[in-house]
Amino acid sequence: MTRSFSARPAAAAAFAAALLGAAWLATHALSAEAAHRIPPPALDEPAGSATREVAVVAGGCFWGVQGVFQHVKGVSEAVSGYDGGAAATAHYEMTSRGDTGHAESVQIAFDPRVISYGRILQIFFSVAHDPTELDRQGPDTGTQYRSAIFPQDAEQARVAKAYIAQLDAAHAFDRAIVTSIEPGHTFYRAEDYHQDFLARNPSYPYIVFNDLPKIEDLQRLYPDRYRADPVLVFAGRT
Fold it and tell me: What CATH number is given to the structural domain containing 146?
């Protein structure tokens, strides 16, 4: 399902939310992903002196994934965008067709002295999305909603592969993880109206049902990693 209403600016989105209301929630009552408590990665990046690192992940609609990581301590920025395809097709209307190679993605800048890359992946797998769903998340279907990790270097790829193998071996989920590891791609920032969407539209039905529970799960499962005030792309403009 394509979120046909998601490309609208904030004012139109708020109006659509008022119209859809409880009927939308009832229609999609079986669509939300559930959080999973999983072990931390046995293999992680070694601690170093760097103060900034970047991770790029895809886990369905970027509104919720961005919203989760904006509430994680040690994250300095989480930006919605597109990864996996070419620059010419890194636009919402084109990506939504599902034939560009792009996935709705989030670029996460974090301080590895505060939170490691492996711990970023732990939150990604356990809270931000369901890594066992193939080419879909919740009510959204298509390759643009696939579960993917876009490693920025060989070490990130090594950690991601080892963690997936660890979780599968431990049967952390009822089904095998289908998350793809896709190195060598470029991240492209999404349109401004997609940035901070969760923070700007907390009463939007899609956000209420699919994404706000992820924020609650983050606080419940990782209280030491949770920050109440999100780090926003457009601070002061919510």
Answer: 3.30.1060.10
